Amino acid sequence: MIKFRKKKADKNIDKKSDVKQHNEHKIEIVNVNKIYDMGRESLHVLKDINFTVDEGEFVAILGPSGSGKSTLMNVIGCMDLFDEGEYYLDGLAIHSMKEKKLTSIRNEKIGFIFQNYHLIPTYTVIQNVIMPLLMRGYEHEEAQEMCMDTIEMLGLKERINHKPNELSGGQKQRVAIARALVGEPAILLADEPTGALDSKSGKEVLKLFRKLNDMGNTIVMITHDLEVAKAAKRVVKIVDGEIFAVEN
Q1: What DSSP state is assigned to residue 10?
Q2: Which residues of 60-94 are buried (b: 16+ CB within 10 A; e: fewer)?
Q3: Among the listed ranges 1-5, 209-213, 225-229, which one has the minimum average pLDDT value?
């Protein structure tokens, strides 16, 4: 995994009460259920989900529209609460945390990569990439210095002063990946990362994911596309809110 200079531990998440005693998995989801109340009816979206990811794995969660994969992604990304079960991320008991702590977890532990990039259109490449570090309190100059190796590795050095509308789709996604990487997250969480790209750019992004995984990064990728899922080293299928199969 790409390493930067060490920083002080976040007081919001560095508490023994939040740490699981046996944290052999990077991600461990135990009997998780998610139910949406729809008035007189309810929608059971996740049904007794059990799922683990070990450090350094590259796992794809594959499922059609309506399968529950997006809800599972939101649970993994600490963006949505669930009704029953337990979730441990990097040894931390996510299910016992309040929203303020979850905000810290999202910034400290998870590097998000979205289908539509979620770049700030008025910011340059470098301004978009350093955002996670500025949110942690780093000074602008220091944050920029910390990002340069990642920016260069992703082939963006000549584009650091360009804005998103001056970039191709593939370049935008590489900016999003750089932004996800700079905070040294426990996991990279990618939501349909090739969905907005042409086939050539999509293949380049998946090749980059394999390279990042070979460097030690733990990656969880959400997709509906079997060919995209095959880029991962393990595929987990979800159908009607249930884990249907696991393929290596």
Answers
A1: P
A2: bbbbeeebbbbbbbbbbbbebebeebebbbbbbeb
A3: 1-5
